Amino acid sequence: MKIIKDSAPSELTNIELFDIFRSKDLGAMRKSMAYSMEYRSTQRTLTDEEANRYHEAIKEKLKQKLNAEIRE
């Protein structure tokens, strides 16, 4: 959560962790975490491209900082 908040643009207004899955099939000490993120501008309507760009930047930070694997 801290990495998401630290790398997020001001347009990220809400983050919610809504699922954590653990299984031996994932591997020892591994878990799958699902987040919901809400982007909103107070100035105007965001385009899909802008929201997608913000989201991709956050995913890249998670990969860099945590060595996270992002399921698509």
In short:
With 72 residues, the chain is of the alpha+beta class. The chain has helices at 2-7, 48-66, and strands at 12-21, 32-39.
Pick out its properties.
alpha+beta; 25% strand; elongated
Radius of gyration: 14 Å
Identify low-pLDDT runs: none
Compute the separation of the termini in Å.
Answer: 19 Å
Biggest β-sheet, characterized?
Answer: 2 strands, antiparallel
| Strands, count | 2
Overall structural class, as computed from helix and strand content, comes to alpha+beta
Strand content: 25-35%
The number of helical runs is 2
Strand sequence of the main sheet, in spatial order? 1-2
* Proportion of helical residues: 25-40%
Mean pLDDT rating: 91
In N-to-C order, the SSE pattern is HEEH
Q: Write down the overall geometry.
A: elongated
Account of the 3D structure:
With 72 residues, this protein is α+β, with helices and mostly antiparallel strands. The chain is built from two helices and two strands; from the N terminus they run αββα. The mean pLDDT is 91.
